[in-house]
Design a protein that fits this description.
81 residues; mainly alpha; 3 helices
């Protein structure tokens, strides 16, 4: 019974990590396109900073990884026999 809950928690944790990664990527792409549009229209350096921020944010989102099963067990103190 305990193993079933652990597996469920593991799956839930990885689903949350994937959702966060997707949201960060989506926001990064949106802000990058927004920044390019405003720079193209001639609005200034603030949007160049936003473009740089969006590329850094996309790289951060891309580097996030899911937990492996052993990392999850270690992080949450699950004992395996």
């Amino acid at each position: 019974m305990n193993d079933a809950w652990t597996d469920f928690d593991f799956a839930l944790e990885n689903a949350a990590a994937q959702a966060k990664k997707g949201l960060m990527r989506g926001f990064a792409v949106f802000s990058g396109v927004f920044a390019l549009l405003w720079v193209w229209m001639g609005s200034g350096a603030v949007y160049l900073f936003l473009l740089l921020f969006s590329t850094v944010l996309y790289d951060i989102a891309d580097s996030r990884q899911e937990l492996s099963k052993s990392e999850f067990d270690f992080a949450y103190g699950v004992r395996t026999n």
